Amino acid sequence: MPPPATPHDADLPGITAVTEPTTKSEVVAVPRLELCVEREAGKPASRSMVLDGDFIRIGSHPSNDLVLADRAVSRFHCIIERVKPAFRLTDVGSRNGTSIAGVRVRDADVLPECRIELGDSVVRVRDADAVAETELARAPSFGALQGVSVPMRRLFPILDRVAKSTPDVLIEGENGTGKEVIATELVQRSARAHKPLVIVDCGAISPSLIESELFGHVRGAFTGASRDRAGAFEEADGGTVFLDEIGELPLEMQPKLLRALASREVRRLGESRVRKVDIRVIAATNRRLEREVNSGRFREDLYYRLSVLTVRVPPLRERKEDIGVLVQCFLNELGAIDKAGLFPSEVIEDMKRYDWPGNVRELRNYVERRVVLGDGASMGAAAPAERDAAPAERDAAPAERDAAPAGAPAANIEMPFKEAKDAIIDRFERGYLAALLEWSNGNVSRAARKAGLDRMYLHRLLQRHGLRRAAALD
What residue ranges in 52-159 does DSSP mark as E strands? Predict the structure, then answer.
């Protein structure tokens, strides 16, 4: 099987602008890296390749960018990608490990003239003489995505091309980097924008129910199947299925998903009839699927089927130039633009010195805490509940704090606490969402803006309450 066409979006050190072909983008010169194979499977070798893009896979499988015919090299052995301030090598769970200058590494910066040892092979890294050219967007945004940094401006033109194409897409990135937002923007700009979008969270569904969730079932197919039900693939016919956290999909379910993706046909549980579906699949994961393939937790053929196009989302620590822009964006969303004085330049600089392991999601939480608590908010782990409470709440007398708020729904103390709380929340969500849909005349994007919710999250809530299982992002 040929390797997937993979656009990449890692950072680009040492960039200099060379031309400005249009008002929408500019072309920049990018340093290149040369990989020279000096030994292969224990024998002297002399061949090389130049890393033109931002990401390269090395391994024994023919789909890799650099293929080593070495039985001691894993199918997907390691990857090299551009990040500040250098190139980074990451071992993706290889069988025999990766070493640099005799030291075994899992994650390390790669410098010119270093020797990488993989199995019985050696690859030397050198600076390439020439430079490559890559496109950067001029605009500091792509729909709901915001960023002035090079990694994001490198990503926006890629997303624009991916959105206008038809193949399936795999979005890779750490938790909190905005994979759902990217999926939303891809749908918004695709030819399927006004067709159904169905979201399936592969990590939140019981393994025993995932097949029914994807493909549906007929009455009596299993205990509790009281009626026929269409699955996500049928409901999204003509539109898009978003498979969130695809790396969590149970191994036994993966061949069935692969077959459905290959044939664009589904069969409900308990039924022999095959149904044709016309869908585009966007999958997202916070895992390195190459590592999952090496460990046997993810099928290699399913990985290739999903990653026809791959988008890699940079973590916030590799694009800290965006922090100021994101803070302004979050203040607007919170209706707290008058609180901009809480984020002077010295505070922004302090924020840039922090690595934000929770990425953009953690940054948004911090902005919200600082709006409420002022200078008392801390970066990093969330503060204790007492410190996170609003000042008026902290200073209230015990009797005031203990009293139930006026208008609070009556609690059924005959039920366990958790069940009673869930029932109240469920009633609130259902009533709120129904009123929201009525206000927006069923327009989910308009409803999301009104409620201050992410559109993907609103879709999930609507699906959870059965109010609108398949809706277009109008």
Answer: 55-59, 66-67, 78-83, 86-91, 98-100, 103-105, 107-110, 115-118, 121-137, 141-142, 145-146
Q: How many CB atoms lie within 10 A of CB 235?
A: 20
Give the chain's residues under pLDDT 70: 1-31, 52-53, 84-85, 128-135, 376-377, 380-412, 414-415, 418, 468-474
What does the alpha-carbon distance between residue 40 and residue 301 come to, in Å, rounded to a whole number?
26
Token code pair at residue 144: 């709901």
* Residues across the chain: 474
230: tokens are: 């269409």
Q: How far apart are CA 23 and CA 290, in angstroms?
A: 38
Convert the pLDDT of each residue in 128-174 to its tens digit.
654 555 667 778 888 889 999 888 988 999 999 999 999 999 999 99
- Reduced to 3 states (helix: H, G, I; strand: E, B; else coil), residue 269 is strand
* Integer angstrom CA distances of residue 278 from 106, 154, 218, 281: 41, 31, 21, 10
Residue 63 to residue 61: CA distance in whole angstroms: 5
